[in-house]
Amino acid sequence: MLSLHMMSVETGQILLPTGLGVFFLGWSESGIRRIILPDLTEKPAPSRGHTDAGETASLPDFMEEACARIKAYAAGARDDFASVPVDLSGLDVFRRAIYETVRKVGCGETVTYGELCQRAGFPGKPRETGAALGRNPVPLIVPCHRVLAAGNRPGGFSAPGGVASKMRLLAHEGVDLSPPPPAQAAFVF
Question: Taking the complete model, does pTM exceed 0.90, yes or no?
């Protein structure tokens, strides 16, 4: 059984302790509707390793799988989460297109805001793309942390911990955004 803290299975909400910290997940019958990331700039508090007293986890199958995959990811497994069902109902066409397109960016890969809006069919809208990603209701599963500003700069990140959390997720996936070493200026013979 998964180690999690039940908030309310009836309303589809749980807290999921992982090696990266405690994630909040909310879902509907269609898929995950909400994720709140832990502040990845802080060391996670030790987990109790069990469900709250007297409660047993009775999650839909897709949530059991999603929780197991998030825990494995936090422990170092590579996962793009592209097959995890999400519920994007109620979102406008633009945001839905941006979220569906960014889900195709694999673990350890990055794309710029400009490239993402182009791929989504909305060329010339990198700022609007950034704004849409800033309102992403399911970060990690809709991997907005894999989207960079021009010049491979980190850009923004609206989750707890801000850009530092984004950088930690990228480093966790093996993405190195440090500047390249300076080129050799001259040869001396």
Answer: no
